[in-house]
């Protein structure tokens, strides 16, 4: 479990195909590897990955074909920056919102509108995700916990403060760039519970 508060801007060192459609990804992140051990979880652009090795500030993780197909990790190349966050500890503050690291879909940047102290960025929503996104609700974009400012049928917008623009990959994303999206898991639980209740009433 994560909170969507990025701890470090890491860098992809290499990606190695490991047979089939899986890969081994090596990522430099001195902060997140400072106490990392084999089996620990680290979110990479919002995707929960399991550490298999740590060496000199670089950790490696296996990425299955399913993950490569359902997220934007398959497009990463050596030198690309990535948002990194270690799994939350039970005694830590919940600075963002509850984030599982299970990507629901890949969206893309539609537009950016700079302002004096912040920037409004609009993203396209994959089909089927819009019903989980509400104004003033939470959403995770490439591992960053954000508050939805506006939402449409197939898009949503957020306001990014200078800190987010400087310390995460969202500051350099251009129109058309893919992003990993994770909607608020609470919305999915509510939908399931209400659906079961309505189905039961219908019977």
TrEMBL record:
Q: What does this protein do?
A: Catalyzes the dismutation of two molecules of 6,7-dimethyl-8-ribityllumazine, resulting in the formation of riboflavin and 5-amino-6-(D-ribitylamino)uracil.
Pfam families reported for this sequence: Lum_binding
- From the Swiss-Prot or TrEMBL record, give the protein name: Riboflavin synthase
Q: Which InterPro entries match?
A: ATP_synth_asu-like_sf, Lumazine-bd, Lumazine-bd_dom, Riboflavin_synthase-like_b-brl
- Enzyme Commission numbers on file: 2.5.1.9
Q: Which organism is it from?
A: Micromonospora solifontis
A GO molecular function held by the record: riboflavin synthase activity
Gene3D superfamilies in the cross-refs: 2.40.30.20
Q: Which UniProt keywords apply?
A: Repeat, Riboflavin biosynthesis, Transferase
């Amino acid at each position: 479990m994560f909170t969507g508060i990025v701890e470090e801007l890491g860098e992809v060192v290499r990606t190695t195909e490991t047979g089939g459609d899986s890969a081994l990804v090596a990522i430099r992140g001195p902060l997140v590897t400072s106490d990392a051990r084999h089996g620990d979880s680290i979110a990479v652009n919002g995707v929960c990955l399991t550490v298999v090795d740590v060496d000199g500030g670089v950790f490696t993780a296996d990425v299955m074909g399913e993950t490569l197909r359902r997220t934007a990790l398959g497009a990463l190349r050596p030198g690309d920056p990535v948002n990194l966050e270690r799994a939350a500890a039970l005694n830590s503050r919940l600075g963002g919102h509850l984030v599982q690291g299970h990507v629901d879909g890949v969206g893309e940047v539609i537009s950016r509108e700079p302002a004096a102290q912040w920037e409004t960025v609009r993203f396209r929503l994959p089909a089927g995700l819009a019903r989980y996104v509400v104004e003033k609700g939470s959403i995770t974009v490439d591992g960053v916990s954000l508050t939805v400012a506006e939402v449409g049928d197939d898009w949503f917008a957020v306001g990014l403060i200078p800190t987010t623009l400087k310390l995460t990959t969202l500051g350099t994303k251009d129109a058309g760039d893919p992003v990993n999206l994770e909607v608020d898991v609470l919305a999915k639980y509510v939908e399931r519970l209400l659906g079961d209740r309505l189905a039961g009433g219908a019977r």
